[in-house]
Amino acid sequence: MTELSAHLPQFQHGQLTENFPDNHISNTNDNSERRRHDNSERRRNDNPESETNGQPQNNVQQVVEQDEEEDEELTLKYGAKHVIMLFVPVTLCMVVVVATIKSVSFYTRKDGQLIYTPFTEETETVGQRALNSILNAAIMISVIIVMTILLVVLYKYRCYKVIHGWLIISSLLLLFFFSFIYLGEVFKTYNVAMDYITVALMIWNFGVVGMICIHWKGPLRLQQAYLIMISALMALVFIKYLPEWTAWLILAVISVYDLVAVLCPKGPLRMLVETAQERNETLFPALIYSSTMIWLVNMAEEDPEAQRKASKNSSYDKQAPANQTQNEDAEADDGGFSQEWQQQRDNRIGPIESTPESRAAVQALPSNSQTSEDPEERGVKLGLGDFIFYSVLVGKASATASGDWNTTLACFVAILIGLCLTLLLLAIFKKALPALPISITFGLVFYFATDNLVQPFMDQLAFHQFYI
Amino acid sequence: SEKENFATALPRVNRASGVWAFFWLVSLLLASLIWFVSVHLSDREDAKLQYGLLVFGAAVSVLLQEVFRFAYFKLLKKADEGLAMISEDGRSPISLRQMAYVSGLSFGIISGVFSVINILADSIGPGIVGIHGDSPYYFITSAFLTMALVLLHTFWGVIFFDACEKRRYWCLGLVVASHLLTSGLTFLNPRYEASLVPIFIITFITGLWAFFTAGGSFRNILNHQCRGVGKGLYFQGG
User: Where do runs of H (alpha helix) occur along chain B?
Assistant: First the structure.
């Protein structure tokens, strides 16, 4: 269900080099900087003239071949950048969850189960336990499927207010109630004396700022931090209230569901994404972690809201080349070229500044590019459900494994590798992909393998103080 | 072009994160699988046999680690060639030496972390080291051994890649042999004089070897010093 996608810069590079193909070649002849500059000056002056002469085609053609090669480079560069942009929040979320599990005993104490998993796992026989956990998983998955379909139906029939309300209620619940419980348990663990008035003030501030950041506008970093926190809180709830076998089963089934829902033509999530694309809207920003921010000028009416339950399985696709109506807000007026990119360009074609004049000249050229987005704004997006389920896996591993830290680490590495692979596939296929299957599969395999095979081995080695 | 994408995306991703810890983990998994199977097929009560199986398991693990290092090298080489093909001047923008260093370092880190993290976690809790007659220096020697191992993995990575690159197979054999030797020396614990000291000597020698393999020389060090001190004033040249 959850998926991520990235839109990669196609023609940005091409636009700029259109002006300076000569420079690129002359660069390798070790020209002096000044000569390069002169060239560029002449080029810039030439272009408006060639335009008026009605012969801008030569420029365009000359660089089309260059474009394709440079395309590959950029694809990979941005691919790598996106990997890091996602590694950090996923790691942070997992670290928060593992730290809480290890220190606050509340989340590993068995205090009953959710109503979605009515069958208990404290049974006499193994067979009974297996049966119960399968039933639990089945019920949970059907609830999720029903909620997702409900969400898609509501979205299709434009019941934005209902979705809006639903999402607000769920974020209220998460931000106020669950964080209140979390805070209480942390205080209990560290034996900190606290009065209700201070707690009320803290929770009130935390919650209100969170609501504003997630559902309306706020600094990007703050919004990301809040999204990470609510994912961690949700994951902790799952870890506490899901019995063991049920949890593993649910993780396995939900990755299959994710695969089906996103890739099948009639899958609910795919329909959601396609509907959003048709209507030229972005999906619920509060359901999705985004590494960059887009300020939309015409996103007037309602902000498509984020959700809770089924929203965990929200999907996102940002592939629309039809985003021409958006007005991007570049952070700095450097034309949207990132520092890295600028350095690379400088290395290749000499130090040339992207000044407003040059940009105007470039934009005046008839280009065959469809987008004029800056690379900055094309971040990667990952659904919050992915965060939650990754953290559930790692948290469960750290809570119940006999291998303790070894198992936790192995699961952590496995999930990150899975995420890496998914991003690689994203760079290759360039469409919305489910982010759960690969990571969860690796995570599960590594959990069971490390817990049962590697742990006894390492234990014996450590006992004798052997090193391998 | 999809294949190119994949091959070329790898090194970038590699540089972005020590993803190659994964390879080490897989090798460890396979080795433990072999050990586990062998233990279950054998007589559990026989202590000597179990000890022997453990040694066997450790040796298998060392060999598998080197095999995976080689596999990683092959993968990187392919990616390197791919990149070189599509770049304009026929050279790939990634440096194989950097890759060697990163690979060795990530192997070392994951290996060190796996060896030591449970010990670290236990060292917080209440307890007395060696109360049952074992050595009271368990923690500190573990720390030193782990450090030596991390450094060794880094050096081995550099030497290994260089040897594969230049097809000096005797170098490869030497790396594998020194890994086996280091692992074997740890079997002499807790007689720490017999294990720690030789291991550190090996670390130092391997370090020097890696330094020269990576292209360093005494001259470089001297130049570095001169430049540092005199800021050009005392620079003697050469």
Answer: 2-16, 21-41, 47-86, 96-124, 138-166, 169-186, 192-213, 218-230
> Residue B12 and residue B145: Cα distance in Å, rounded?
32
pLDDT of residue A200: 95
- This prediction has a pTM of 0.74
Mean pLDDT of chain A: 73
Q: What's the rounded Cα separation, in Å, for the pair B104 and B115?
A: 16
Q: Write the DSSP symbol of residue A242.
A: S
B59: closest CA among A323, A461, A423, A29?
A461
As a whole number of angstroms, the distance between CA B109 and CA A133 comes to 38
Strand partners, A381: A5, A290
Please, is B230 exposed, middle or buried when counting C-beta atoms within 10 Å of its C-beta (0-12, 13-18, 19+)?
A: exposed
- Within 8 A of A418 by CB-CB distance, chain B residues are none
Angle A100-A102-A104 from CA coordinates, rounded to 5°: 55
> What does the alpha-carbon distance between residue B63 and residue B155 come to, in Å, rounded to a whole number?
17
C-alpha span between A316 and A386 (Å, rounded): 12
**Window from A124-133, A183-192, B88-97 with minimum mean pLDDT:** B88-97
* A374 included as an active-site residue: no
ipTM above 0.85, yes or no: no
Give helix A196-215 / helix A220-241 axis angle, nearest 10°.
120
Q: How confident is the model at residue A217 (pLDDT cuts 50, 70, 90)?
A: confident
Whether A386 sits among the annotated catalytic residues: the reply is yes
Q: What is the DSSP string of B26-47?
A: HHHHHHHHHHHHHHHHS-SS-H
Angle, CA B193 vertex, CA B190 and CA B194 arms, to 5°: 80
Contacts of B5 in chain A (CB under 8 A): 72, 75-76, 427-428
Amino acid at B201: I
User: Would you place residue A66 in the very low, low, confident or very high pLDDT band (cuts 50, 70, 90)?
Assistant: low
pLDDT of residue A187: 95
Find all residues with CB under 8 Å of A325, minimum gap 6, and list them: A280, A298
Q: What pLDDT does B217 receive? A: 73
Q: In this structure, how many other beta carbons lie within 10 angstroms of the beta carbon of residue A268?
A: 25
- Total residue count of chain B as it appears in this document: 238
At A294, the pLDDT band (50, 70, 90 cuts) reads: low
Mutate to test the interface with A, among B1, B4, B26, B88 (most CBs of A within 10 A): B88
- For the stretch A171-187, pLDDT in tens is 999 899 999 999 999 99
* Through-space distance between the first and last CA atoms of chain B, rounded to whole angstroms: 48
Reduced to 3 states (helix: H, G, I; strand: E, B; else coil), residue A321 is: coil
When pLDDT is averaged across residues A381-399 and rounded to a whole number, the result is: 92
Comparing CA positions, the residue from A410, A440, A93 lying closest to residue B21 is A410
For the residues A112-136, what does the mean pLDDT come to? 87
**pLDDT score for A230:** 93
- What burial class does residue A374 get, using C-beta atoms within 10 Å of its C-beta: 0-12 exposed, 13-18 middle, 19+ buried? buried
First to last CA, chain A: 41
Task: Find the CB nearest B118 among A79, A404, A457.
Answer: A404
Place of tokens 């076998």: A245
Nearest CA in chain A to B21: A413
Domain ranges of chain B: 2-236
Interface of B with A in 43-102 (CB under 8 A): 54, 57-58, 61-62, 65, 86-89
